[in-house]
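We now fix the convention by which a protein and its fold are recorded. The integers have meaning only within a learned vocabulary of local backbone shapes. A record is reproduced here so that you can trace the correspondence yourselves:
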Amino acid sequence: MNKLMLGLIGNAEDRNKPYRWSVRNTVQTIVLTITVLIGIQFYFWTTQIRAGGEVTISRPPGVEGFLPIGSLMGWKYWLQTGIWDAVHPAGMVILGFAILLSLVLRKAFCGWFCPIGTLSEWLWKLGRKKSGDSWLPPKWLDIGLRSVKYLLLFFFGWAVASMSAADIAGFLELPYWKVADIKMLNFFTAMSLTTAVVLLVLTIGSLFIRNFWCRYFCPYGALTGIFALFSPSRIQRDDKTCTACGVCARVCPAYLPVDKKDRIVSAECTGCYSCVEVCPVKPAMEMKTLGLKSRFWTARRLAWAVGGGFILVVITARVLGLWTSSVTIGEIRAILPRIDFLQHF
């Protein structure tokens, strides 16, 4: 009877509860803000490069986080030869951090850190506020669409896997790779109609479907999801204390049946901790990591693990000389006149 009453109370109080601002949202906002500032700094750095005069703005290495395929090549080349890519080294660091975090705390990189994931989450929450709830496509369509990101990952993974060390070395020495970050900037500053339409579709889709891009199309998320399957961390539910109110499942950005499973092992789980935070009966839900005591993880500890972990990784990379690009301003200026004609092989 007590369990039933708690369930009814939980349903009555939490069914229509708005999403409260959380520690995770603060971490997401900080990372997104830093990303925007990096983008602005990179834009003005590029502007000074093009102007041909003195360059007073430094290039922000963090922009390389948006070059994951090249970074994946860099990692394979390092594993084969022990040589770290000096052209875009920070990209390798960020990709390595994402994979390491996924191995420890599931897809926490997606749920806590990724700025694209943050924008996607803000969009579906805005859509939910206006329409009342997000839409989940029929199961057959949802599963089919979810496979797209894995197919994209397979395609990129196969392409990288088929390259020899000599092939990758050739790519890393190409003028194309040296200005790949600037070409990426041009992709948005000189946006084509096709690009604009695709971005508009993704934006509209994100208003109605939770994490539309992340759920269906992001190969980066597919990669972290695969590594997350080997993580010792899980969301666990205690059936004895659970009131079956269903609040946890309603806030899950991945539509996972958190209220029905004893533990969540899905590659879609982002380790966002939302289900634990909204649970009206706290002993019923927790993030559990093998080897750590029960109830070790709190939102604040997860925030420190994600944010502090990234800061530690970056500091280590800087000390070891694995963070700053070796490409000179002179090299970039020599390449820029033909940047629109450069292609990768």
In short: Residues 279 and 303 are 19 Å apart (CA to CA). The chain is about 60% helix and 5% strand.
